[in-house]
Amino acid sequence: MKLPLFASAGIGALCAASAVLAIDPIVIKGSKFFNEKTGEQFFFKGIAYQPRTGLTTQNPDPLADTVGCKRDVELFKDLGINSIRVYEVDYNKNHDACMKMLEDAGIYLMLDMPSPKYSINRAQPYWDHDTMSHWAAKVDAFSKYPNLVAWIAGNEVANDKDTTPSAAFVKAAIRDMKAYLKSKGLSTPVGYADNDDMEIRMNLINYFNCGDEETRADFYGINTYRWCGDDATFESSGYSDITKNMTDYTIPSLITEYGCNLVRPRVFHEVESILGSDMSDIFSGAIMYEFTEEDNDYGVVKVSYGSSKVEKTADYENLKEVYAKASPKGVKMSDYKPSGKDSVCPQVSSIWEVKDDILPPTPSSARCKCMMDSLGCTITKPELTADEGKALGEVIGNICGLTDCKDISYDTSKGVYGNYAACDSVQRSAWALNKNFVNSRYTQCEVDGVDTAIIKSPKQEDADVCLTMKDDMGNIAAPVTPSEDDDEAANDNEDSGSNSSRSRSRSNGDEEDEDSSSDKSSSDTSAGSKSFVGHAAVQLVAGVAALAIAAF
């Protein structure tokens, strides 16, 4: 590690790469953030930043818009904020100018890892090499900036009792991205932000802080819009309950979104509690949603891409005023003695369908490629159009309704994940088509509207070799052992889907979901339909069909 961990995690990626920094690194000790240089406790006094008006590209990136950054950083300074949360960027663009402006202004960046195309779909969740590689590319692009303070690996992904299986995949992503950061000598913390759902919130709070340290979130965020209007109070808003829920929590907690807009102009009285005596002992500050006025009416300014013109809303001065008054009394890092205990994983129930801390496997591109090389019937395109995905989804649904697809399926309530559950949607679909091809005695490989091919001599003769391949973090993961509940299904698996040497594969139980909340009015775009036995669900992602198969 180039940057030693301090307690749970240290922040300020690659801060050791420069002898003198314009901004101090922030670190975590116990359940609090601290300025590593001064030892003072750090509280987020931030704002969500994702301008969309005037956008002319498909990949919004406010941190690559130099004109916008020059305009907005001056406003940030005037508002008195010390941090921004950005949901979506294009890691292929250059961000040096904007990040330097933010650094010089003393403003830290909290950045979401997912993007609309590469995120964990709450309705049909999976965690594969393609998604992980795009998140890693974002890490590589931003880790050089000393004012990168934290990553968020999921935003309101599991948002009701029907979508709790997705939490296991988010936690797997946290595990793998923490390991990836560590492999790069980085210790920037990785957290999660929930939607404050009354029914499942305690399960989520406990789940992301239970189990091994390598799998736990480094901090926990709550997006809440309870405090509405001038008459709301700490008690009547429910903020008192939120605070009680986080007492004795062993990792930092903060409000990652706030700002109810049912009554405008907003007066932001919740800031007095968040950064005052009501909550500052427990919470590490908050991020107000949001900076720019968009169609959802949450902004404090009206701006447009490429323009330096600014029009302030009535909310602007109100936010400026409450932030100016906020002066939380923290504790010195040297005097702070962490307490509390790690959470206990929630038990499987009617409102929670994840078993303990048993997570989906780390993606293995080598294993998935090997599997594809073993197939006698395959899909010839690496990506599918929407029409192809729909046609394929119907076929895969029929196949997995008639035969065992546990090698590409999962059951989070039992902690069972198939050997190829972490392969991408096309690879999993090809496995199922080949399974049907074998069961039909090598006659059925065609799917109307989808390019398929029969491979007479697969490159990989023994599919079992694929299960010995290392995952994308360089670890050799043992094949999943079938549970007792799978014994009956195993008897139906003589022809498992590998054409090579008619070999038997092991039968073991295994997008666009905008998990970024860059538009509150449409942030819940992946409604929570539940996976069911033997059927494939097709999630269309920006014209590409992502096929997710989950067995329950």
List descriptors.
eight-stranded parallel barrel, disordered N terminus, three-stranded antiparallel β-sheet, 24% helix, 12 helices, alpha/beta, 552 residues
Concise account of the structure shown:
This protein is 24% helix and 14% strand. The protein is of the alpha/beta class and 552 residues long.
What would you say this structure looks like, in words?
With 552 residues, the protein is of the alpha/beta class. It is 24% helix and 14% strand. The protein has helices spanning 66-79, 96-104, 129-142, 165-183, 201-207, 239-245, 270-274, 314-325, 365-373, 386-402, 425-439, 487-490, and strands at 26-29, 32-35, 41-42, 44-48, 83-86, 108-112, 148-155, 190-194, 219-223, 253-258, 283-288, 301-302, 311-312, 377-379, 410-411, 416-417, 452-454, 536-541, 544-549. The strands form 6 sheets. Strands 4-5-6-7-8-9-10-11 form an 8-stranded parallel β-barrel. It has a 3-stranded antiparallel β-sheet with strand order 1-2-3, with no helix packed on it. A two-stranded antiparallel ribbon has the order 12-13. Residues 1-20 and 483-552 have low confidence and may be disordered.
